[in-house]
Amino acid sequence: MSVRTAYVPYVPYPHPDMTLVSDDPAWWPAISYYHLLSYFIVASSTTVLYDWISTFAQEFELIWRQRWSFMTVLYICVRYIGILYSLINILWWLPVSMTDVG
Could you identify which of 55, 64, 70, 86 might form a hypothetical disulfide with 48, taking C-beta atoms 3.0 to 4.6 angstroms apart as the criterion? Predict the structure, then answer.
């Protein structure tokens, strides 16, 4: 006795490196959200970088050249953890590949 299986047509799946394109309107709110989120991330990260560049001379003179105390260490930790967080956030949400795949 043989068991018959249903015919399943071959459905080519995209290569793992290729992007899947969907015309489904259900995705439009999510796409719009991530598009707006990417603008916000770029704007806020640019602001953090601008603040760091514009105040670095004062920071170097008033913080780095003075005698170190608990408040100096606390200031440096808070300041550079924010900059590090901003950099990691940019790299995490960056939509382009940083590697040369090809």
Answer: 86
pTM of the model: 0.57
Q: Are 45 and 86 in contact (CB under 8 A)?
A: yes
Contact 47, 39 (CB under 8 A): no
**HEC-encoded secondary structure of 4-18:** CCCCCCCCCCCCCCC
The answer to whether 20 and 14 have CB atoms below 8 angstroms apart is: yes
How far CA 33 is from CA of 37, 42, 63, in Å, comes to 6, 14, 40
The two tokens of residue 43 are 């704007």
Output the CA–CA distances (angstroms, integers) from residue 34 to 39, 47, 75, 100, 101, in the order listed. 9, 20, 33, 24, 24
